[in-house]
Design goal:
With 157 residues, the chain is α/β, with parallel strands linked by helices. Helix content is 43%, strand content 22%. The protein contains five helices and six strands. The protein has a six-stranded mixed beta sheet, sandwiched between helices. Strand 1 and strand 2 form a beta hairpin. Helix 3 crosses helix 5.
Length: 157
């Protein structure tokens, strides 16, 4: 099975009264079976180290559509299909006030942090825009009232 032309990206977020905390990112090029296993593994990590996620956001396009169907049939994970609107630049622009207001928090150190910061700083001119896309879609979900029943969220784009 071939690798996808874009990396799989998953971000684990915690919503609190002071903002949105990006706890963890998993990002790598994977085949569909590898990606499916990675989603299950990250879900289990979240359940073990934080709490069961309020939702797993999955982009409902191409591979994500297949993943939603398969995981929906085979698991009880709290899946939420996300259909992106407009282009990636516009989507992040709409959500940038949350970032500018200081409501998005990152850890002081993490193995993925420099890659994430570099991509966001160079967005949309970075070689990939998948982490920026994950960021904008997650912030949109929060802005629209997502995760009000619980603070934890797992997003995958």
């Amino acid at each position: 099975s071939e690798l996808t032309n874009a990396p799989w990206v998953g971000g684990t977020w915690v919503r609190t009264e002071t903002g949105y905390y990006l706890v963890r990112i998993t990002r790598r090029w994977m085949t569909y079976p590898e990606g499916r296993r990675a989603v299950a593994s990250e879900y289990e990590w979240c359940c073990a180290h934080l709490a069961p996620p309020h939702a797993l956001l999955i982009e409902d396009k191409s591979t994500g559509s297949s993943l939603l169907q398969e995981l929906g049939d085979q698991t009880s994970m709290p899946l939420l299909a996300i259909l992106p609107e407009k282009d990636k630049v516009t989507r992040l622009g709409i959500e940038s006030p949350a970032i500018e207001a200081g409501n998005v928090w990152l850890p002081e150190s993490a193995e993925w942090l420099s890659d994430f910061e570099r991509e966001i700083a160079n967005f949309p001119n970075a070689s990939t825009a998948d982490q920026g896309d994950m960021l904008s879609m997650t912030l949109k979900h929060f802005r629209e009232g997502g995760a009000s029943a619980g603070p934890r969220l797992r997003s995958l784009y």
